[in-house]
Design goal:
heterodimer; A: about 0% strand; B: MetI-like fold; 11 helices; about 70% helix
Chain lengths: ~325, ~290
């Protein structure tokens, strides 16, 4: 297992190198000149030369890339063009907020989706099954920004609710933090729940058809044991894969919800970087998010062996 | 012929008529077809259905509620919401179709090459796909648009690039399955050229999962466009987009809730219809997956 993890970590290197090259190339495609953007109307040839030297833009592209990536691996993502603050600490503080939102959304999604998905498979073609399938289809089809806007409209008309103006951290004031985070987490969670419900149902139906389930039932095992110890456990590989992809997608993919609810997470930070053409912020955020995504995929692969001991990576 | 010798997916894409008929028989398929049909009709006949110029402002009719003159009310510039919704359908479909076309075209070629030739070519192609996959799709699309500049064409390109890996993986997996069948081995043994095997024998068997993927990707592309426009980096004003209409409406939703309701309902209806149709298509074309 340790060898497998080391091997997988090594395969991450070319992917991350590729990701960093892709980011660097896309940043070069951006029209307009960075230095002109910073200096604006105050631009003079001397100031321009000074800034080009400061940002390393006077060097060849390959040298610029190695200089950037060399610093990035040590956690130095440079300084924001707008604020002058180092990018990496800002990414870490934003990441904590996005991670909290993602975790809450996952918890809500699992609480809704897993029991309903199992129930739907056990009551196949019943009225419950049909309702669950319609709810799941709505979950995957209603865009989060549409449901968020409709929900805010409904809550403002009914309960005089307004989206929070200022974010309060989890450890500053737990109650206020939950007031801010629960609604966006519920919206994200309900979208995730739709696909998890569908996957749980189809995966359970597949397993429930298997001969070994018939054998377990024939042995007289209680239905609860048959379903949870034998069927659910064996059907969980595709569910875990999907959940892993969803968690990866939530890192930065929560940008729309963060924007609607004024949550200063990683997605909002990246979006601000994009709209303000703050290149170190964009480069740093995108590289960090891609890194998280591949690491989460690796963790999911490792988790398989704990769920299904037949899977061996040795 | 032994069962093993048959193509893996022996239901290659049936003729249009029989496919449509099969879809129509399924209640979900019918619902999806009707929903998608409505969106297509709105998009195609937009100039005849829309009642006013989408960009025409009318200061005297600002934030008018739904009435006989303005069926879906007017926005903060006095523009007719119904007409903007109708033209928004055209924008959504255009972006969706072109983006999926880009993704499907490149995905098909890359998936075919990776699945059929294997070896180093496959490793390199799949690594590039993994790199694209390492970004959340909306973020990657925003990132590409920020580099190319926000416009309708660049939105299509960005969403297209984001969707290439899904098609590549689908086609590659199907090609690999088809490749291991006896009839491909027979085709090789009688000396058929690789290209001939690829296009005459492999392609028809890849079409079914490819078609299902394309339908589902269309809803994803429309959703991504709406999300990007919602964030202000997709379709630029004065072009109407459901996403940007919804985003603009948030400032006025207390006074004019219709500005939120109609674009939201049309986005939901369109994506729901494509998803239902995609599910029904999958059931018809790939019954193994029907549970």
């Amino acid at each position: 297992m340790r060898d497998y993890i080391i091997r997988r970590l090594l395969t991450l290197i070319p992917i991350l190198v590729g990701v960093s090259i892709a980011i660097f190339i896309v940043m070069q495609l951006i029209p307009g000149d960075v230095v002109s953007g910073i200096l604006g109307i105050e631009e003079t040839p001397e100031l321009r030369a000074m800034w080009e030297a400061k940002l390393g833009l006077d060097k060849p592209l390959i040298q610029q890339y190695f200089s950037w990536i060399g610093k990035a691996v040590t956690g130095d993502f440079g300084e924001s063009f707008r604020t002058g603050a180092p990018v990496f600490p800002e990414i870490m503080s934003r990441f904590k907020i996005s991670a909290e939102l993602a975790l809450l959304a996952c918890l809500i999604a699992w609480i809704i989706a897993l029991p309903l998905g199992v129930l739907s498979s056990l009551k196949r073609n019943s009225i419950i099954d049909r309702i669950v399938r319609v709810v799941a289809l709505l979950g995957v089809s209603v865009p989060n920004f549409a449901s968020a806007t409709l929900l805010i409209l409904f809550l403002s008309k009914t309960f005089n609710y307004y989206t929070p103006v200022k974010y309060v951290g989890l450890f500053e004031n737990f109650g206020t933090n939950m007031e801010i985070m629960l609604l966006p987490a519920f919206i994200l969670g309900s979208v995730m729940a739709g696909s998890v419900m569908r996957m749980t149902r189809s995966s359970m139906l597949e397993v429930l058809r298997q001969d070994y389930i018939k054998a377990v039932r024939a042995k007289g095992a209680p239905e609860r044991v048959t379903i949870f110890r034998h069927a659910f456990k064996n059907s969980s590989i595709p569910i875990v894969t999907l959940i892993g992809m969803q968690i990866g997608g939530l890192m930065g993919g929560t940008v729309v919800i963060e924007q609607i609810f004024s949550i200063p997470g990683l997605g909002q930070f990246t979006l601000t970087g994009i709209t303000q053409r703050d290149f170190p912020v964009v480069q740093g955020c995108v590289l960090f998010i891609a890194f998280l995504y591949v690491v989460i995929n690796l963790l999911v692969d490792i988790l398989y062996t704990y769920i299904d001991p037949r899977i061996s990576y040795s | 012929m032994k069962k093993k010798d048959r193509p893996v997916n022996n239901r290659s894409l049936p003729g249009n008529e029989s496919l449509l008929r099969q879809l129509w028989r399924d209640p979900m398929g019918r619902a999806g077809m009707i929903g998608v049909g409505v969106v297509i009709l709105l998009a195609v006949f937009a100039p005849w259905i829309a009642r006013y110029d989408v960009a025409k402002m009318n200061a005297r009719a600002k934030l008018t509620g739904p009435c006989a003159q303005f069926w879906f009310g007017t926005d903060h510039f006095g523009r007719d919401v119904f007409s903007r919704i109708v033209y928004g359908a055209r924008v959504s479909l255009e972006v969706g179709i072109v983006a999926v076309g880009i993704a499907a075209g490149f995905g098909y070629l890359l998936g075919m090459i990776a699945g059929f030739f294997e070896g180093r070519v496959e490793t390199v192609i799949m690594m590039i796909m993994d790199i694209i996959f390492a970004f959340p799709s909306i973020l990657l699309a925003l990132f590409i648009v920020s580099a190319l500049g926000p416009s309708i064409i660049n939105t299509m390109i960005a969403i297209g690039i984001v969707n290439i890996p899904v098609f590549t993986r689908t086609v590659r997996a199907s090609v690999k399955t088809v490749k291991s069948t006896d009839y491909i081995a027979n085709a090789r043994s009688i000396g058929l050229k690789k290209m001939s095997i690829l296009f005459k024998h492999v392609t028809p068997n890849v079409l079914a999962p490819f078609t299902v993927q394309a339908t589902l990707a269309l809803s994803g592309a429309i959703l991504t466009e709406a999300s990007m426009s919602f964030l202000g980096l997709g379709i630029q004003p004065p072009n109407p987009s459901w996403g940007s209409m919804l985003s603009d409406a948030r400032k006025y939703m207390e006074r004019a809730p219709w500005l939120v309701l109609f674009p939201a309902l049309f986005i939901i209806m369109t994506i729901l219809s494509f998803n239902i149709l995609g599910d029904a298509l999958r059931d018809v074309l790939d019954p193994k997956l029907k549970l």
